[in-house]
C-alpha cells in the first residue's frame, strides 16, 4: 500500500481517531500552505472591501465637502476601480486554493476509506451492511469536502470580515462600534440552540439515507430472487416505506432550517437598524461627520452579515461533524493484520494439518464448532459432510485465518496457525467458493487475478485448459479478452465455476479448499468440473465440502459434522459399514439413482 502524502494508512488512522481537530489537521497534510493561502487571500479581499469604505469617507468628507472637483476626484474613482479589481482577484484566488485543498482532502479520505474497508475483518463485514459503507465512503466524505471548500473558509472569512470592520469602525467611533454588536450574543446563543437540534436531525437523516441505499443495493444484487418470486410489489412497498421515512426526516431538517434563517435574519435586521439609528442621531448631533456615517453604514453590514452567516455556518458545520463521526465509526475498526506473525516459514509448506480440540464461536453466537479433532498428512484429501448449518464452511474458514480459533489448537506443519502471517497463509491456500464470483473485467484478468504478479499468456491458457474451460473461452467473440458480466458475456454457473478453478490453479496453492464447488451445476458439467478439480487436487492437501457421496468417495478422510461436532470419521469403506448419517445419506442417494434408472428404463421401454 502506497503512503498517502507521506502518511502511512495506519498513522492516518491513528490521527483521524484521536480527535476531530487532530484528524482534520492531518487530513490537510500537504495542503496546509495552500489552505493558508486561501485564508490569507480571503483576508486581503475582506481588507479591500473595508478600504473602499474608507475611500468613501474620504470622498464625502474631504473631496465633496470641500468641493475638490479636480484630479483628486479622478484618483478616488480610479481607487474604487483598483480596489474592486483586487478584491475580485483575491476572492477568485481564494476560491481556487480552497477548492484545490478540499478536493485533495476528499480524494485522500476516499482512498483511505476504500482501502480501510477492504482490510476490515470478515467478522466486521458479516455484521455491517454494504449500503451503510457505501453511504459513508461517498456522502459522508463529501460532507467533509464541503467543510473545507465552503465552511472552513467561510468561517475564516467571517472572522476576518468581522475583525477588520469592527476595528475599522472602532477607530472611527468606539461607542458606535460597541452599539453595533450588542445583539450579536443573542444571535450566537440562538445559533447554538439550533446547532444542537440540527445535528441530531441530520444524523437521523443520514442514517435513514444509508438504510435506503442498503435497500436499493440489496434489491439490485438480489434482483433475480425478487423476480423469481414475483415479489416486486413487496419490495416496492418496502422501498416506499423507507423512502417516506427519509422524506419525513428530511422535512424535519428543512423545518429546522427554515425556522432558523428568518429568526436570525430578524435579529440581524434589528442590530443593523439600531446601528443606523444611533449613527444617524450622532451625525445630526455632530458627534460624527457625514462621511464617517456613510463609511459606517457601508462597514457595519460587514459586521452583521458575518454574524448572520456564522449561525448558518455553525449549523452546516454540525453536519460535517456528524459525517466525520460517522466516518470514524468505520475508521476506528481495527484492520486485519496481514503481515504480522511470529513464525516466518523458510521452507515451502508441506500441508500437514492438525485440529486438536478446536472450538469456535462467532461474535455473539454460541459454539459453532465443538471439540474438533483430526489430522491429515500433506497431500491428503479431507471431505466434510453434514447438514446445512453443521459448521462445514466455518471449519474451513479457520484455515486462512478468516476467523480465529476460540479454543483448542490448530497446527499447520506442526506450528500453531495463529503464528503464521495471514498474508502468507492466504498465498498458500486456494479457495473455490460455493458461489463463484467474477469481476466485471476480462476473462484473462479474472484468471490472472489470483497470481498477484504478471503472468504470461501461456500460463493463463494452461490453467484454463486444466480447468476444461479453454474451448468455451475460445468460442466467445473476443476469446480471453471477453468481458464478464453486465457489459460482456453472461456465463453459466458451470462456466463461472470452471473459471474460478482456473484462477485457483494458476495460484498453485499448497492447500486447497473446495466449498461445495459443484453444487450449482448440472451433472454433465459436474463431470467436466470433477476432472478439473481432480487435477487441481493433485499433490495438495485438500478440504472438500460436498453433498454428493460420489464426489468424496476417494477422500483419505471423511468427517461427518452435526451441530458443530464430528459425529463420524473415516474412509468411505469404513463409514458405510457403520450406522449413522453417512450411511443414511449414502442409502438415500443410491436409492435416488436406482429410482432414476428405473424411470429412464420405463421411458425407453414405453
Ligand atoms: P455449513 O457450511 O455446514 O452449512 P456454516 O459453517 O455455514 O455451516 O454455519 C454453521 C453455523 O454458524 C450456522 O448455525 C450459522 O448460522 C452460523 N454462522 C455461519 N456464519 C456466521 C457468521 N458470519 N456469523 C454468525 N454466525 C454464523
Report on this model:
- The protein contains 21 helices and 10 strands.
- Helix 3 (32-64) runs antiparallel to helix 11.
- It is 64% helix and 9% strand.
- It folds into 2 domains: 7-331, ABC transporter type 1, transmembrane domain (ABC transporter transmembrane region fold), CATH 1.20.1560.10; 353-605, Rossmann fold.
- The strands form 2 sheets. A 6-stranded mixed sheet has the order 6-7-8-3-9-10.
- The longest helix has 53 residues, at 232-284.
- The two termini are 68 Å apart.
- With 606 residues, the protein is an alpha/beta fold.
- The structure holds adenosine-5'-diphosphate (ADP).
What descriptive keywords fit this protein?
606 residues, single chain, 64% helix, Rossmann fold, six-stranded mixed sheet, ABC transporter transmembrane region fold, binds adenosine-5'-diphosphate, four-stranded antiparallel sheet, 21 helices, alpha/beta, 2 domains
What is the approximate shape? elongated
Taking the sheet with the most strands, its summary is: 6 strands, mixed
Proportion of helical residues: 55-70%
CATH architecture of the largest domain: Up-down Bundle
CATH class placement of the largest domain: Mainly Alpha
Largest beta sheet: strand ordering: 6-7-8-3-9-10
Q: Which kinds of small molecule does this entry bind, naming each only once? A: adenosine-5'-diphosphate
Amino acid at each position: 500500500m502506497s503512503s498517502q502524502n507521506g502518511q502511512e494508512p495506519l498513522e492516518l488512522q491513528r490521527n483521524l481517531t484521536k480527535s476531530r481537530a487532530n484528524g482534520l489537521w492531518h487530513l490537510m497534510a500537504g495542503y496546509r500552505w495552500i489552505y493558508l493561502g486561501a485564508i490569507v487571500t480571503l483576508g486581503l479581499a475582506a481588507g479591500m472591501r473595508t478600504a473602499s469604505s474608507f475611500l468613501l469617507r474620504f470622498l464625502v468628507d474631504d473631496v465633496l465637502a470641500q468641493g475638490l472637483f479636480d484630479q483628486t476626484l479622478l484618483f478616488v474613482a480610479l481607487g474604487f476601480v483598483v480596489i474592486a479589481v483586487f478584491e475580485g482577484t483575491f476572492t477568485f484566488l481564494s476560491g481556487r486554493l480552497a477548492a484545490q485543498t478540499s478536493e485533495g482532502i476528499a480524494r485522500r479520505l476516499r482512498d483511505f476509506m476504500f482501502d480501510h474497508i477492504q482490510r476490515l475483518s470478515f467478522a466486521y463485514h458479516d455484521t455491517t451492511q454494504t449500503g451503510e459503507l457505501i453511504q459513508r465512503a461517498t456522502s459522508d466524505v463529501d460532507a467533509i469536502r464541503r467543510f473545507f471548500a465552503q465552511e472552513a473558509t467561510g468561517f475564516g472569512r467571517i472572522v476576518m470580515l468581522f475583525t477588520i470592520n469592527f476595528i475599522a469602525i472602532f477607530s472611527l467611533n468606539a461607542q458606535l462600534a460597541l452599539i453595533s454588536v450588542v445583539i450579536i450574543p443573542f444571535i450566537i446563543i440562538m445559533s447554538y440552540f439550533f446547532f444542537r437540534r440540527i445535528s441530531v436531525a441530520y444524523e437521523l437523516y443520514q442514517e435513514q439515507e444509508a438504510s435506503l441505499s442498503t435497500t436499493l443495493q440489496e434489491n439490485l444484487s438480489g434482483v433475480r430472487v425478487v423476480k423469481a418470486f414475483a415479489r416486486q410489489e413487496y419490495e416496492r412497498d418496502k422501498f416506499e416505506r423507507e423512502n417516506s421515512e427519509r422524506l419525513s426526516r428530511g422535512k424535519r431538517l428543512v423545518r429546522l432550517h427554515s425556522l432558523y434563517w428568518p429568526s436570525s435574519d430578524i435579529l440581524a435586521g434589528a442590530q443593523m437598524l439600531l446601528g443606523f439609528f444611533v449613527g444617524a442621531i450622532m451625525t445630526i448631533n455632530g458627534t460624527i461627520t457625514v462621511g464617517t456615517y456613510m463609511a459606517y453604514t457601508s462597514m457595519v453590514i460587514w459586521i452583521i452579515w458575518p454574524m448572520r452567516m456564522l449561525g448558518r455556518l455553525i449549523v452546516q458545520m454540525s453536519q460535517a461533524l456528524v459525517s466525520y463521526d460517522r466516518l470514524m465509526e468505520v475508521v476506528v475498526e481495527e484492520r486485519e493484520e496481514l503481515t504480522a506473525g511470529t513464525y516466518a516459514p523458510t521452507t515451502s509448506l508441506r500441508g500437514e494439518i492438525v485440529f486438536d480440540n478446536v472450538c469456535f464461536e462467532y461474535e455473539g453466537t454460541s459454539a459453532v464448532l465443538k471439540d474438533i479433532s483430526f489430522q491429515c498428512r500433506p497431500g491428503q484429501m479431507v471431505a466434510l459432510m453434514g447438514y446445512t448449518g453443521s459448521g462445514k464452511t466455518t471449519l474451513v474458514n479457520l484455515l486462512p485465518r478468516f476467523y480465529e480459533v476460540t479454543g483448542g489448537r490448530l497446527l499447520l506443519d506442526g506450528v500453531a496457525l495463529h503464528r503464521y502471517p495471514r498474508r502468507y497463509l492466504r498465498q498458500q491456500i486456494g479457495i473455490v467458493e460455493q458461489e463463484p464470483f467474477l469481476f466485471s473485467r476480462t476473462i484473462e484478468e479474472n484468471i490472472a487475478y489470483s497470481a498477484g504478479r504478471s503472468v504470461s499468456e501461456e500460463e493463463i491458457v494452461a490453467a484454463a485448459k486444466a480447468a476444461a474451460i479453454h474451448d468455451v473461452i475460445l468460442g466467445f467473440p473476443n476469446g480471453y479478452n471477453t468481458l464478464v458480466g453486465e457489459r460482456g458475456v453472461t456465463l453459466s454457473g458451470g462456466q463461472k465455476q470452471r473459471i474460478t478453478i482456473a484462477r485457483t490453479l494458476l495460484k498453485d496453492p499448497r492447500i486447497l479448499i473446495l466449498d461445495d464447488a459443484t453444487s450449482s451445476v448440472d451433472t454433465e458439467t459436474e463431470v467436466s468440473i470433477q476432472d478439473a478439480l481432480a487435477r487441481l487436487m493433485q499433490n495438495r492437501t485438500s478440504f472438500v465440502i460436498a453433498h454428493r457421496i460420489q464426489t468424496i468417495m476417494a477422500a483419505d478422510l471423511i468427517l461427518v459434522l452435526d451441530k458443530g461436532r464430528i459425529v463420524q470419521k473415516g474412509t468411505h469403506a469404513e463409514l458405510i459399514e457403520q450406522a449413522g448419517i453417512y450411511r443414511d445419506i449414502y442409502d438415500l442417494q443410491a436409492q435416488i439413482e436406482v429410482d432414476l434408472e428405473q424411470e429412464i428404463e420405463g421411458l425407453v421401454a414405453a
